[in-house]
Amino acid sequence: MQGVQIVLFLVAVATVVATFAERVSVPAPSLLVVAGLIVGLFPIAGRIHVTPELVSLVVLPPLLYAAGEELSWRELKRLWRPVTLLAVGLVLVSAAAVGFVTAMLTPLSPALGFVLGAVLASTDPVAVTALGRRLALPPRLQTLVQAESLFNDATSLILFRIATAAAVAGGAVGWTGVAVDFVRLAGGGVLAGAVVAAGVGWVRRRTEDPIVESVIALIVPYLAYVSAEAVHASGVTAVIVAAVILGIRQHELTNPGTRLQLSAVYGTLIFLLESVVFSLIGLQLPGQIRDLSAAEQSWAPAVLAIALTLVVVRVAWMLPLAAFQQWRSGGRLRPSWQVPAVVSWAGARGVVPLAAALSIPLTTASGLPLPHRSLLMVLATGVIVVSLIAQGFTLAPLVRLSGLAVSPDHTQAEYVRARRRLTEIAAGYIEQIEDLEAAPPAVLAHVRRSLQAQMDLDQESEDLTGAYGRMRRDVLAVQSDALTRMYADGEIGPETHRRLQRHFDRQDQRFTDP
Q1: What is the mean pLDDT of residues 58-63?
Q2: Degrees, nearest 5: CA angle 399-401-406
């Protein structure tokens, strides 16, 4: 099959899989990996060669950007300590543990084993976000898992670059060199992402053309990534920083119509990219296995042992962290297994480790082929597949068993309370306008009636773009600002904030002048 045919086939498969996943309540990424793995076993699939540029430059930036934009800044500020411990400390420990196990069970040298550890040390924000969409976790726990997966990518990829340089050069890297490289890669990535976010924010404040806004939104992740890589900094870090900054400022940079359009455009793009990349993860594994030499055929036990090592290390890291949090609370928090278990099992691997594995050099510094590179690729891809399948299919049942999932009734009740509160705020605003005699009484009466009817205008036949429409847009703006304050003050969670913001954006479009 040719490349274009393969991509179209994967998108078609993904559409069917996504529909099936909706019915059986299974995360689509896990089913896509299984589907790709099955297709890869048939000769019709041919040999699948995925280039590093395809994943790291084309696929990865927009997926990271979308995950970063969804991050709750309010919750992140409260959780920066555990996020830091997970995103830095756990990555280093996981890389060392995987390197040790790999060197014990495979022909790989300790240096190459540590390269594999650096590849697999981080959880994947794309996979974690995709797997977590159905879980209905509490906002704080969802932010912890998602923020860890975003920021530990930067740590692991920086560690991967350093480990790869040492393995390819055939020598050790001094601690001074490691510290300098880390500061250059991480600090440069943060600076590049902040500069891109500032420039994009300046441009977006000065345009209201939805098409231009869509184009800007599509190129931002690529611009951040390429800008950072051009100065030898971390492109992944730059994309994440730009996404978080622009996500915080999204409300002030865009109007309702643009937000709705961007949501549709990005939703389509993310579906297509996730469809291709998760299918490719499973699709390329059979071909990689066929490339192994006779001495490398005992890869399966090593894959299972490495996958188990990652889980065990993660559990061993989470238990004392949870105990420390309980101690810091002064006994207000009761010891429990639920949060450590869910956070430990939510550490799926996916697109970012795949991008790192594909970028492993083919040769050493002397020009000789890198020893056992085929085995490195099989081990990395195999662990990713095992992680997405095992943890993807069982994470939702674990969340239900733990009792941590927010019930639909609770979410709906919060939504109703917030909507009622915003309706009361809008009614107060109408009273102020009425006291000032700043609008015709008939218009105010009409707006008041529509508010009492829960703003349902589907059956309305009035002119929505005249004085009534302008008044309704003013009311919606007041409610939207109040919604932002309610979210910032912690009165409502991210899901309720997103639902109501989309509702107001759609309503605003009904009153926009053509």
Answers
A1: 86
A2: 50
Question: What is the model's pLDDT at position 44?
Answer: 59
Buried b / exposed e along 478-507 (16+ C-beta atoms within 10 A): bbbebbeebbeeeebbbebbebbbebbbeb
* Amino acid letter, 473: R
Mean of pLDDT values over 31-35? 82
- Please report the DSSP string for 187-203 in residue order: HHHHHHHHHHHHHHHHH
**How far is CA 193 from each of CA 59, 188, 221, 233, rounded to the nearest angstrom?**
18, 8, 9, 10
Of 214, 223, 259, the closest CA to residue 241 belongs to: 223
Contact 228, 470 (CB under 8 A): no
Residue 173 phi, psi (nearest 5): -110, 130
- The amino acid at 64: L
Query: What does DSSP assign to residue 46?
Result: -
Q: What is the largest CA-CA distance in the chain?
A: 87
CB 445 within 8 A of CB 473: no
pTM of the model: 0.74
List the structure tokens of 374: 């085929």
Q: Are 368 and 138 in contact (CB under 8 A)?
A: no
- Please give the share of the chain, as a percent, with pLDDT higher than 90: 14
Q: What H or E segment, with its residue span, contains residue 134?
A: none
The Cβ-side half-sphere exposure at 348, using a 13 Å CA radius, reads 29
At residue 385's C-alpha, the angle toward residues 384 and 387, to 5°, is: 65
